[in-house]
């Protein structure tokens, strides 16, 4: 069941299963969809916000994958995604839309989310130890920017090839380096118990590592961006790229659904939560003039039982942040 605080924001038909069907956001320059699944976990700790409005050249994608127990991870991801989205919307009003200004805005969004989580941890003993990964993705025309903390991947699929764009702040890169150097067997590396341990997270304390390039990545018509929680990595990067390439002429909802089908079809016993955002780049040229009335952004939360409790104050706080951001 999804969080009461976010569910009313979703644009879906009454008979649509909110946890298994992709939601198509827009067309124009961007074709965007999200899809989520709880996997085989007892609760959901992922949260996403997708804001790609019709006729606009600016798009925002935010994804957070929480940790810290049932309640903690759920609250951390919702609060971080909401705070980061609200902050980047605020920053875009006044920041310079050059590389330096946008990088500063993205870093401020990460810092704001971290500060808000720190306040919650300080005021509620039940939430101590909670934290989350966080990726804030911003597209302005053909320019892609991001800031990320943790191991949630951002992929670019182009011409049949897939490339992970953001850094992986987990033990996986170090373990893979040991495998490459012959210090560890490949099988041992893939199943290493510390492989998924984070080396950096948004948890209310100093952030050890963050990835925020100082320049943009140039997008082209036909590019496919995939932002996800690490639950997608049940399938290999090679398979992710192959699915995106095979479905390149389909819409974003079909791509997202095919990726999810492949993950769940792997039938992994302890499959993690899976959250996927797919953004297809439809055109290189500027989008049409922005209409006076913009479509509502696609807001997706995948909260589980704790957040579904009526009147959960922490999740309602997250909803308030989103509602204020929508007025900007």
Automatic annotation (TrEMBL):
Top-rank taxon, per record: Bacteria
Chain segments carrying region Disordered: 291-313
InterPro entries reported for this sequence: PP2C, PPM-type-like_dom_sf, PPM-type_phosphatase-like_dom
Alphabetical list of Gene3D superfamilies matching this protein: PPM-type phosphatase domain
Name by which UniProt lists this protein: Serine/threonine protein phosphatase PrpC
Coiled coil spans: none
Domain named PPM-type phosphatase: residues: 29-281
MF term (GO), any: protein serine/threonine phosphatase activity
Source organism: Yoonia maricola
């Amino acid at each position: 069941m999804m969080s009461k605080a976010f569910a009313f924001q979703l644009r879906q038909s009454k008979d649509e299963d909110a946890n298994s069907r992709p939601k198509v956001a827009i067309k124009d320059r961007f074709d965007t969809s999200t899809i989520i699944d709880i996997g085989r976990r007892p609760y959901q700790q992922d949260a996403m916000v997708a804001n790609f409005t019709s006729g606009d050249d600016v798009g925002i994608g935010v994804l957070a994958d929480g940790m810290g127990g049932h309640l903690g991870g759920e609250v951390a991801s919702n609060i971080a995604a909401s705070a980061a989205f609200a902050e980047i919307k605020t920053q875009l009003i006044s920041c310079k839309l050059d590389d330096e200004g946008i990088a500063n805005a993205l870093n401020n969004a990460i810092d704001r989310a971290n500060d808000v989580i720190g306040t919650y941890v300080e005021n509620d003993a039940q939430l101590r130890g909670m934290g989350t990964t966080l990726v804030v993705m911003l597209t302005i025309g053909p320019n892609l920017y991001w800031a990320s903390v943790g191991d949630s991947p951002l992929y670019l699929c182009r011409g049949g090839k897939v490339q992970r764009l953001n850094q992986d702040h987990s033990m996986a890169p170090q373990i893979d380096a040991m495998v490459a150097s012959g210090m560890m067997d490949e099988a041992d590396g893939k199943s290493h118990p510390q492989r998924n341990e984070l080396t950096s997270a948004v948890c209310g304390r100093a952030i050890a590592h963050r990835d925020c390039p100082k320049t943009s990545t140039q997008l082209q018509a036909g590019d496919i961006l995939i932002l996800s929680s690490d639950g997608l990595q049940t399938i290999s990067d090679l398979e992710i790229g192959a699915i995106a390439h095979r479905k390149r002429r389909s819409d974003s909802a079909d791509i997202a659904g095919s990726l999810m089908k492949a993950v769940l079809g792997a039938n992994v016993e302890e499959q993690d939560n899976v959250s996927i955002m797919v953004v297809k780049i439809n055109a290189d040229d500027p989008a049409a003039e922005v209409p006076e009335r913009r479509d509502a952004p696609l807001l997706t939360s995948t909260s589980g039982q704790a957040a579904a409790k009526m009147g959960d104050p922490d999740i309602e706080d997250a909803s308030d942040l989103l509602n204020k951001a929508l007025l900007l």
